[in-house]
Amino acid sequence: MSKPLKQIHLAAHFPGVNNTTVWSDPAAGSQIDFSSFVHLARTAERAKFDFLFLAEGLRLREQGGQIYDLDVVGRPDTFAVLAALAAVTDRLGLAGTINSTFNEPYEVARQFASLDHLSAGRAAWNVVTSWDEFTGQNFRRGGFLAQEDRYERAKQFLTAAQVLFDSWRGDEIVADKESGTFLADPDVGRFQHRVSQFDIAGQFNVPRSPQGRPVIFQAGDSEEGREFAASSADAIFSRHSTLEAGRAFYTDVKDRLDRYGRGRDELLILPAATFVLGDTDADAQEKAALIRRQQVSGQTAIKFLEQLWNRDLSDHDPDGPLPEVDPLVGENTIAKGRASVRMHRDPLDVARQWRELAATKNLSSREVIIEVTGRQSFIGTPSKVAETINEFVQTDASDGFILAPHLTPGGIDEFADTVVPLLQERGVFRSEYEGTTLRDHLGLAAPRNRDENRDENRNRATERAAS
C-alpha cells in the first residue's frame, strides 16, 4: 500500500524592511500602511494559507552606533496589527513574534488570550529571545543575557504564560439573566507561579479562549532552540535550504519528541522560503539573480561582513575580495551580543568557509554575502516550484513553508494565482478551509489544561504502579 500524501502547510510572512525586501522596487508599496497588511492577509486567505506571520522589531537595527537602511521604515506594534487584521479576515491564522526577554508573562498572556477571542481562535505566538545589547537599552533591563540564560528565561516565560491561560477552564461563570447576577467560582483565574525568573500570583482576567492557548512557534536552530521546540512548541522554523539538510533537521527535531511524551505529528517543521516565478526556468533564474543583487546592496554586504569580522570595514570595497585580516574574536563591538550568540559561534571557521567559497567560485565580498545569506529559494516556472515544494514535504524535509516575498504588499499574488492551484490539483493542499481555528488548519489537537494534564499523569502513575 502506498504511503498517503502529506498535506502541505503554507503561510505568508509580512517581512517589513529587511534583507529579503526590495523596498526600492517601483512595484513596492508601503511597509507600514494598514492597507499593505490587509492586501497580503486577504491574498493569503484567498489562497487558503494557514496563517500570516509578523516578525517583531523592538528597536531600529543599528551597527557601529548608526541606523542603516534595513530598518529605516520602523515597525508597528505586532498586537495592534494582528487585532486589526482579525476584523478584515475570517479564517486566516494570525501569528506574531513576541519577545520573552523584555516582556512579562501576564501582559503577553492577556494580549494573546484577547487576540484569540477577537479572531475566534486564530492566534499564534512565535516565542523568541533577544540577543543584542542595544535592544535592552529601550527597557529597564539593559544589556543582553547569555544564550543559556535567554533560553532558560524563555522556557520559564512560556510555562508561566501557560499557567495563566489554564487558570480558566471555561465553565467557571454562569449568568443568571433573571436575577441579573453571575454565579462564579471564587478561584476563577487564580494563579501562583514561583520560579527563578518569575514570582507571580494573582487572578487572570481573560476567560479561556477558543484555542485554549495560542499556537506556539519557535525559531531557534541551535541545540537549545531545537530542544525548546521539542519540549514546548507546536511548530519550529528552519533555515535549511537543501533536501539533504532539511531531512537531517527534520529527523533530528522529530526524534527529540518522544522523550517529552509527544507524537511526531505534534510539532510541524516550517522553513522560511523565498520564491521567484518565471515563464521559463531560465527566465526565473535571471530574475532571481537581479533580485538578490537588489536585496544585498554594497552597504548591506559591508554590514554583514562587519558582524563576522567584528571590525569597522566601512572603507572595504564590497566588489573586491574578502578582507585579508582575520575576524576579531571576543566581545562583539560592532553589534553587541549579536555575533557571539546568533550565527557565528566560531568566527574564524566561518571566515575560512567563506574564503573557500570565494576562491572556488571566484566571488567578490558582496557575492559571497549574496550566497551565504540567501534563504531556501524556489526558483522556476509555477509547475517547477509546485513540484519542488511537494518533494520537500513528501520526503520529510519539511511540513510546509513560510513564504517571504521580496515585494510588499503584492508579493504573493502570483504564487496564489499560479502555484497554489497546481498544488491543489495534486491533492496536497486544501481547496477550502475545513475548520475555523488555526489549530484546525495545522492539524493540531487542542491543548490540555492543567487539570487534564494532572489527571493524565495520575493515570500513568497508577498504570505503572499496577504493572
From TrEMBL:
Keyword Repeat: no
Domain of life: Bacteria
Gene3D superfamilies linked: Luciferase-like domain
Keywords for the protein's UniProt record, in alphabetical order: Flavoprotein, FMN, Monooxygenase, Oxidoreductase
Entry EC no(s): 1.14.-.-
Region feature Disordered, mapped onto this chain: 440-467
Molecular functions per Gene Ontology: monooxygenase activity
Domain Luciferase-like: 26-395
CDD domains: Nitrilotriacetate_monoxgenase (cd01095)
Family statement: Belongs to the NtaA/SnaA/DszA monooxygenase family.
PANTHER family linked to this entry: ALKANESULFONATE MONOOXYGENASE-RELATED, C2H2 FINGER DOMAIN TRANSCRIPTION FACTOR (EUROFUNG)-RELATED
Protein name as catalogued: NtaA/DmoA family FMN-dependent monooxygenase
Organism encoding this protein: Streptacidiphilus cavernicola
